[in-house]
Predict the 3D structure of the following.
Amino acid sequence: MKKAIIGYCFLFSVFLSYTSFGQKLKSEAISYNYNRLPALPVKGIDSYQLTFEAAYEARNQQLVNEYEQQRNAAEEKYRNDVASYTAQVKAANDRYDKAIAEYNKKSLGTKIAEMSLLDNKKPVREIISKPYLATVEKPNLQSSYDYGVIANTYIKLEGYKNEPGNGLRIKVVLYGFDHTRPRSMDEQQENVKLGGSGSSGMYKSTLYHTEFSYRHPMAVKVYAPDGKEMLSLTPPELNSYKIYKGPATDRPSGINYDLLLKTTEEKILQDNLRFINNLLNDKYGYSSIKRVATLYYIKNGDNGYTDLTTAFNEASSGLLMMQQDANSGKAKLQKACDLWNTALKEADISNKKARINKDIALGIYFDLLEAYFALSDTQGGESTLEKLNTLSMDNSDRRIKLDFDVLFAELKNRQLHN
């Protein structure tokens, strides 16, 4: 697994061409994969163990326990209330019967006098409320997952075996899905209204959309076999809130907010786990990375550039062969580099009519950089970049050159640490 480069590539359609003094300098995009060296290689270790820790599971369990306690207390109170309900009704009826009997013994004159002086009215039967079972709201829990399944699905340290043993210990900590309450937002927009006679006017309309903020923070920790902490990181990219903004409509739409939140939670969980996987492989793994390269060549009606055509074909087939036969693929890439370097010896940058004029020379330099990167040849890449520094370039070519500066600087740094 720890080869400097393996790759596969396929050619697809030409996307750029321009005319330069009677020749057509064209380019073709080539997609291939290369094995990237780790930024922080771990010597003598070829395995890892992965565990997940959901920081919110303890809080979930606490909420469930509190819910069960409150529900049990409510049920116990209901049972006691039901048991005492009959006795309370009988006692109330007895009190009423006694009071009404005493009331009926009094003369009419006495009743009238008492009602006048004491506001003493006829006894009323007391109503005893029937017992009811109090409602206990279920707690709002964070989603639980089959952590073994998501570990095997989303996290894989390339170049290592996932097995128990004396390997790296990786822990991914989930802090849970956090979000604001979704709400319907409205905004005004101005529109142009065309009249029948060609006149126009402005009018305002209201658009509606659903919006909320959300995040799912995660952390990753890596330990050496002896337990020494090698990495402890809570990526800020995963700790910052993102904003969901739904499509605009001309009227408020009835959206199932629970379903929308669930769908968003599942997506950010997957996205963040892929981020963690890429982070781990960038630091410790031997990852297969896709790169879309660009090779330039001359297309014209004569045979004046057969050397560049041969170099292009050798480089293209060399990349194609890297997967099955890396040695032969490298040999073809090296042959292409030799042809390009030979052609550059006759470059005449100030002569627009020269066979290898400035525009063609730039294309060759960029071809060399692509080949040297595929070969992991930082010395050849740096030498070519130094030569490019002596040439004036337009903004487009300068951006291409700067991209190669970064590419080779990263490659050299990784090689120095491996």
Remarks:
- The mean pLDDT is 87.
- Residues 66-141 form one domain.
